[in-house]
Amino acid sequence: MNTILLLVPPLINVLVTGIFAFVILRQYIGRRHSYQLYWSISLLMAFVATLAYIAMLIVGPTSEPGTYFFRLYYALGGAIMPSWLGMGSIALISKPRVSRACVGFLLLLSLIAATFVLDATIDMSRLSHIAGTPGTGTLHPGPWLVMTILLNTLGVVAVAGVALLSGWKMLRKQASMGGAKTSNILWANIFIFTGAILNGAAGTLARFLGLDSIFWLIMALGWIVLFLGVLLASRRSRHVVGAPLAGASPLHAPKHTYKR
């Protein structure tokens, strides 16, 4: 019974990231904006990572398949995913040449990080008690930790930074845009910023404050808040077809505004 209850927060994350990935991927297929592709990649990573975590618990964390699932979960969800989340925001506000250079650099960092995670030594005693926690301390300290901190920091700073920049532009405008009040777009960016901070804080709280037990709840809350920001921005765009969206939410922009 306890194991089933511990699966609930990860299952919520699977549901939210799956829906989120589907929405953004559908936007990319219809509009072909590169930032939508990078967001889709990161969300699919989060989706697969959480599925791997659940599969690990089902087959047994310390079993041979369980250790493989753990490494997959940690490589995608713990190390790489946040940076691709940030890559989408960078692609939204930068020129194509800059975006391509960043993607090339990020691919290299992602490959290095994944290699380090796959090669790291696992503390089997800690792995046996991973249920309901993010698995902090399960891998022995090594180069993977440096890469994880670096990629997580880059991702959170990019997502939150672009959201704050968009919100700041809304405050400066102090007027309605295309029939929608500035405050509505500002709230979308507030949700996006808050969601990014919650996701980034989940791992930090677990690692430095020992709050492992609430990691998945914080992550689920972060994804839900982030998704609400996307839905709010999308609702605005559906009501205002063809209106320019200067300083819009980094997760949703009209088709004609950004061209990649």
The helix-strand sequence is: HHHHHHHH
What's the CATH topology name?
A: Rhopdopsin 7-helix transmembrane proteins
E-strand count: 0
Distance between the termini: 50 Å
- Catalogue the unreliable spans: 237-260
Basic shape: globular
Instruction: Work out the helicity level.
Output: over 70%
CATH architecture descriptor:
Up-down Bundle
Mind summarizing the main beta sheet?
A: none
What would you call the quaternary organization?
single chain
Kindly provide the radius of gyration, computed on alpha-carbon positions and rounded to a whole number of angstroms: 19 Å
How much of the residues is beta strand, in percent? under 5%
Q: Determine and state the CATH class.
A: Mainly Alpha
User: Helical stretch count?
Assistant: 8
Mean pLDDT: 80
> Structural class of the secondary structure composition?
mainly alpha
Number of domains: 1
Transmembrane segments: 6-25, 37-60, 72-94, 101-122, 142-165, 186-208, 214-233
Keywords: Membrane, Transmembrane, Transmembrane helix
Protein name: Histidine kinase N-terminal 7TM region domain-containing protein
Describe the protein's architecture and organization.
The protein has a single domain (2-239), classed as Rhopdopsin 7-helix transmembrane proteins. It contains eight helices and no strands. It has helices spanning 2-31, 34-59, 64-93, 96-119, 124-127, 143-173, 182-209, 215-239. α7 (182-209) packs antiparallel against α8 (215-239). The longest helix has 31 residues, at 143-173.
